[in-house]
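Quick one:
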Amino acid sequence: MEAQRINPDNLCKPLASYSQVVRKGNIVTTAGTVAINVEGEIVGKGDIVTQTRQTLENLKNSLAAAGAEMNDVIKTMIFISDLANYKGMNEVYDEYFAENPPARSTVRADLALPDLLVEIEAIAVV
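Output:
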Protein backbone atom coordinates (compact mmCIF):
# COMPACT_ATOMS: atom_id res chain seq x y z
CA MET A 1 0.00 0.00 0.00
CA GLU A 2 1.43 3.33 -1.04
CA ALA A 3 1.31 6.43 1.14
CA GLN A 4 -0.56 9.51 -0.06
CA ARG A 5 1.52 12.65 0.53
CA ILE A 6 -0.67 15.74 0.49
CA ASN A 7 -0.06 19.48 0.60
CA PRO A 8 -3.58 20.99 0.62
CA ASP A 9 -4.25 24.02 -1.60
CA ASN A 10 -5.97 25.85 1.29
CA LEU A 11 -2.71 25.89 3.32
CA CYS A 12 0.56 27.72 2.82
CA LYS A 13 3.11 25.79 0.79
CA PRO A 14 5.50 23.89 3.09
CA LEU A 15 8.39 25.99 4.36
CA ALA A 16 10.83 23.09 3.86
CA SER A 17 10.99 19.61 2.36
CA TYR A 18 8.01 17.81 3.93
CA SER A 19 4.41 16.81 3.30
CA GLN A 20 1.79 18.52 5.43
CA VAL A 21 -0.28 15.36 5.74
CA VAL A 22 0.35 11.71 4.91
CA ARG A 23 -2.21 8.93 4.72
CA LYS A 24 -1.37 5.26 4.50
CA GLY A 25 -4.34 2.96 4.75
CA ASN A 26 -6.51 4.21 7.58
CA ILE A 27 -3.70 6.10 9.36
CA VAL A 28 -3.33 9.85 8.84
CA THR A 29 -0.42 11.87 10.23
CA THR A 30 0.15 15.59 10.01
CA ALA A 31 3.30 17.62 10.06
CA GLY A 32 3.69 20.22 12.76
CA THR A 33 0.98 22.77 12.02
CA VAL A 34 1.36 26.45 12.85
CA ALA A 35 -0.54 29.74 12.58
CA ILE A 36 0.47 30.62 9.02
CA ASN A 37 -2.23 31.53 6.51
CA VAL A 38 -2.36 30.50 2.85
CA GLU A 39 -0.37 33.62 1.87
CA GLY A 40 2.49 32.54 4.16
CA GLU A 41 1.85 35.18 6.85
CA ILE A 42 1.94 34.44 10.57
CA VAL A 43 -1.53 35.02 12.03
CA GLY A 44 -1.89 36.49 15.53
CA LYS A 45 1.65 37.56 16.35
CA GLY A 46 1.93 37.73 20.13
CA ASP A 47 -1.60 36.31 20.67
CA ILE A 48 -1.73 32.67 21.79
CA VAL A 49 -5.52 32.43 21.43
CA THR A 50 -5.50 33.62 17.80
CA GLN A 51 -2.47 31.48 16.93
CA THR A 52 -3.96 28.37 18.49
CA ARG A 53 -7.25 28.87 16.65
CA GLN A 54 -5.46 29.37 13.29
CA THR A 55 -3.23 26.37 13.98
CA LEU A 56 -6.22 24.12 14.73
CA GLU A 57 -8.11 25.38 11.65
CA ASN A 58 -5.02 24.54 9.57
CA LEU A 59 -4.87 21.13 11.26
CA LYS A 60 -8.55 20.57 10.43
CA ASN A 61 -7.84 21.44 6.77
CA SER A 62 -4.86 19.05 6.69
CA LEU A 63 -6.95 16.21 8.06
CA ALA A 64 -9.83 16.91 5.66
CA ALA A 65 -7.47 16.71 2.68
CA ALA A 66 -6.75 13.10 3.71
CA GLY A 67 -10.39 12.22 4.43
CA ALA A 68 -10.15 12.61 8.21
CA GLU A 69 -11.90 14.79 10.79
CA MET A 70 -10.96 16.10 14.21
CA ASN A 71 -13.02 13.26 15.75
CA ASP A 72 -10.63 10.79 14.10
CA VAL A 73 -7.60 12.20 15.95
CA ILE A 74 -6.22 9.76 18.52
CA LYS A 75 -3.02 11.66 19.50
CA THR A 76 -1.75 15.22 19.36
CA MET A 77 1.67 16.60 20.09
CA ILE A 78 1.77 20.25 21.12
CA PHE A 79 4.91 22.37 21.10
CA ILE A 80 4.56 25.70 22.90
CA SER A 81 7.27 28.35 23.01
CA ASP A 82 6.36 29.66 26.48
CA LEU A 83 4.50 27.72 29.15
CA ALA A 84 2.97 31.02 30.31
CA ASN A 85 0.75 30.62 27.20
CA TYR A 86 -0.44 27.14 28.21
CA LYS A 87 -3.79 28.29 29.65
CA GLY A 88 -4.75 30.34 26.58
CA MET A 89 -3.73 27.53 24.22
CA ASN A 90 -5.61 24.96 26.26
CA GLU A 91 -8.85 26.99 26.28
CA VAL A 92 -8.93 27.04 22.47
CA TYR A 93 -7.77 23.42 22.19
CA ASP A 94 -10.67 22.37 24.43
CA GLU A 95 -13.13 23.98 21.98
CA TYR A 96 -11.88 21.72 19.18
CA PHE A 97 -11.61 18.55 21.25
CA ALA A 98 -14.46 19.01 23.75
CA GLU A 99 -15.78 15.48 23.33
CA ASN A 100 -13.56 12.42 23.21
CA PRO A 101 -10.24 14.28 23.45
CA PRO A 102 -7.22 12.45 22.03
CA ALA A 103 -4.13 11.43 23.95
CA ARG A 104 -1.76 14.37 24.09
CA SER A 105 1.77 15.52 24.83
CA THR A 106 2.66 19.15 25.47
CA VAL A 107 6.26 20.36 25.59
CA ARG A 108 7.99 23.72 25.71
CA ALA A 109 10.16 24.14 22.63
CA ASP A 110 11.88 26.73 20.50
CA LEU A 111 9.86 26.88 17.29
CA ALA A 112 11.23 27.38 13.76
CA LEU A 113 10.17 31.05 13.54
CA PRO A 114 10.46 33.39 16.54
CA ASP A 115 6.91 34.82 16.14
CA LEU A 116 5.30 31.36 16.38
CA LEU A 117 3.87 30.54 19.80
CA VAL A 118 2.42 27.06 19.21
CA GLU A 119 2.77 24.11 16.85
CA ILE A 120 0.50 21.07 16.81
CA GLU A 121 0.76 17.75 15.00
CA ALA A 122 -1.72 14.89 14.99
CA ILE A 123 -2.26 11.21 14.31
CA ALA A 124 -5.71 10.09 13.19
CA VAL A 125 -7.33 6.78 12.30
CA VAL A 126 -10.18 6.77 9.78
